[in-house]
Write a structure and sequence with these properties.
Blueprint (H helix, E strand, L loop, with lengths): L5 E4 L4 E4 L9 H5 L19 H8 L7 E3 L12 E4 L5 E4 L2 E4 L5 E4 L2 E4 L14 H5 L4
Antiparallel strand pairs: 1-2, 2-3, 4-5, 5-8, 6-7
Amino acid sequence: MSDKTHTYTNGEVTIVWKPALCSHSRKCWTGLPEVFKPGDRPWIHPDGADSARIVAQVRQCPSGALSIAEAEPQQATPATTVDVTPNGPLIVRGTVTVRHADGREERKEQQCALCRCGASANKPFCDGSHRRVGFAG
């Protein structure tokens, strides 16, 4: 899995995109098509909307592939929650450490989507395969 990260800024807010985490939920571009344009290269246009709308939309990313670069560390650590999505992944919100079978550790600061269907090529993270295999649960 690649740890490649891309950043896009409008001078006020910086969008961070980690493609390897993307579960292709389509929430970004259906929610804010002025900024997120999957047919374009680059596909993120941070000048397409005001910063508040961008931040609100990025916070809806279920996999954590999109985030906002924080200018300074947050004061308090929020509680970690796990939401079961219908026929989809587990959405983990909050700071968590994922320990892989090979001993590697990954720290997730905001949220991530964990596979429930078993078909992901990016386990333990969701890659959207649940739609392809017709997962129900």
